[in-house]
Specification:
Distance between the termini: 35 Å
Structural class: alpha/beta
Largest sheet: 6 strands, parallel
CATH architecture of the largest domain: 3-Layer(aba) Sandwich
CATH topology of the largest domain: Rossmann fold
CATH class of the largest domain: Alpha Beta
Helix content: 25-40%
Number of domains: 2
Number of strands: 18
CATH superfamily of the largest domain: LarA, N-terminal domain
Strand order of the largest sheet: 3-17-13-14-15-16
Shape: globular
Number of helices: 14
Length: 414
């Protein structure tokens, strides 16, 4: 039985297994991928969930900031459509700022200028958030522990803040709900580090606390409308939602569960997990999410093979996996880290305690080996690896998908 698994920006791995070997192939792109995300965005802001249309919510002269989260699928098309909707509502280009959590060349100032020329000598502003420079931050409030929260100054000064984010399953690593688009993404470095620390083996109470903080930040900023994307495979868009944040959250959570929850009959000896999408999807954070998903579907002493086009070198937390004398020691050090890759490093350490991990990437083999991971140089090696195991699960889009073994789900419900 031949199966194809897509990874990266257009690469594939072909696996040929006997029917009894392949337990499940899940995480494939759901049906109904949007052919025109910009048109879907225009429709969403014209008829938002439990909120007036955008044209009735923004007035000429309002300073509007689009806060664009990292990893939003089709971000350039979405941002362009929002800017167009604002201009149609009477906004001037110079009153619109696109604030990016991370630089994205697809909608640089020069690109937007081509589409939306200046009026009265002012054009759409494009700014990348800097969490380290105090001059670009404003004090917003203190969290429940009394720690100060600083937010990007443009958000603080805006008349209208429109968050643009990517919806995920509630259990997704590092996900803090629709308002997590703003906090910690556009907060100061100490606030971001508190969130990173919480993301390392978080308790439900810790996650709830951080989500509550993100909700409060949105409230303090006066956010009344949120724009969120339900992702599809390969950087595509499944749904575009706009409206009151709580309404978007409820609808988006249901759509994500429908699209990305999947059941497998039982755990397999090998899980082949793929991360599909361009370079924006090929991140260590998504490697952590893929490992968390694959770990729920693999047997103890089994193996996980990750198919990626990851090119970024390991961060500070990952480095402890090669420095420490053993995994328990590495985990102790990683739990003290407040770097963005800390949660992913913990997922990798936990996986290595249970299974063998293989990684197909664009990294040097020596870099991968130092992490305790077996490097894979070509997709054909994944196929050979799969043929050597008695049972296998193929998990596409593992950064979004969440598999559950039926036998365990039945046991928990009983």
């Amino acid at each position: 039985m031949a199966s194809t698994l897509r990874y990266g920006a257009g690469s594939i791995v072909e696996v040929d297994l006997e029917p009894q070997q392949l337990l499940a192939a899940c995480g494939a792109s759901p049906a109904g991928v949007l052919a025109d995300p910009a048109a879907a965005l225009a429709a969403a802001v014209a008829a938002p969930l439990d909120f007036p249309p955008l044209a009735q919510s923004v007035f000429p002269g309002d300073r509007v900031v689009l806060a664009v989260e990292e990893g939003v699928p089709q971000a350039a098309a979405i941002v362009e459509a929002v800017v167009r909707a604002l201009l149609d509502a009477g906004s001037e280009p110079g009153d619109i700022c696109v604030l990016q959590a991370k630089a994205d060349a697809d909608f640089s100032a020069a690109e937007l200028q081509k589409r939306f020329p200046e009026r009265n000598g002012r054009g759409v502003e494009v700014v990348v958030h800097d969490a380290k420079t105090r001059e670009g931050l404003s004090y917003l409030a203190a969290d429940e522990a009394g720690e100060p929260i600083y937010i990007n100054r443009r958000l603080f000064d805006a008349d209208v803040v429109l968050p643009i984010g990517c919806l995920r399953l509630e259990t997704s690593l590092g996900y803090y709900g629709v308002n997590g688009t703003l906090d910690p993404a556009f907060s100061d470095l100490p606030t971001q580090e508190r969130f990173h620390a919480t993301g390392v083996d978080p308790t439900p109470e810790q996650i709830a606390t951080r989500r509550h903080e993100a909700d409060e930040v949105a409230w303090w900023l006066g956010v009344l409308m949120s724009i969120q994307i339900v992702p599809a495979a390969g950087g595509s868009v499944l749904h575009v939602l706009a409206g009151a944040p709580e309404s978007v959250h409820r609808r988006g959570n249901a759509l994500c569960q429908e699209a990305w929850n999947c059941q497998v009959p039982r755990r397999a000896e090998l899980v082949v997990a793929a991360i599909e999408g361009d370079r924006g999807q090929q991140s260590w954070e998504n490697v952590g999410r893929a490992l968390a998903a694959a770990s729920r579907a693999v047997t103890d002493d089994g193996a996980i093979a990750l198919c990626t086009e990851l090119a970024d070198r390991p961060g500070p937390a990952m480095q402890w996996l090669r420095r420490a004398k053993d995994l328990p020691s590495a985990l102790r050090h990683i739990r003290k880290q407040r770097s963005p890759d800390a949660a992913a490093a913990v997922e990798l350490a936990h996986a290595l305690e249970r299974v063998q991990v293989y990684l197909l990437s664009r990294l040097d083999e020596s870099v991968v080996e130092e992490l305790g991971v077996a490097p894979v140089s070509a997709a054909v090696e994944i196929a050979r690896l799969a043929s050597r195991h008695r049972s296998c699960i193929l998990l596409a889009n593992a950064q979004f998908a969440s598999p559950t073994a039926v036998e365990e789900a039945v046991g928990q419900s009983g």
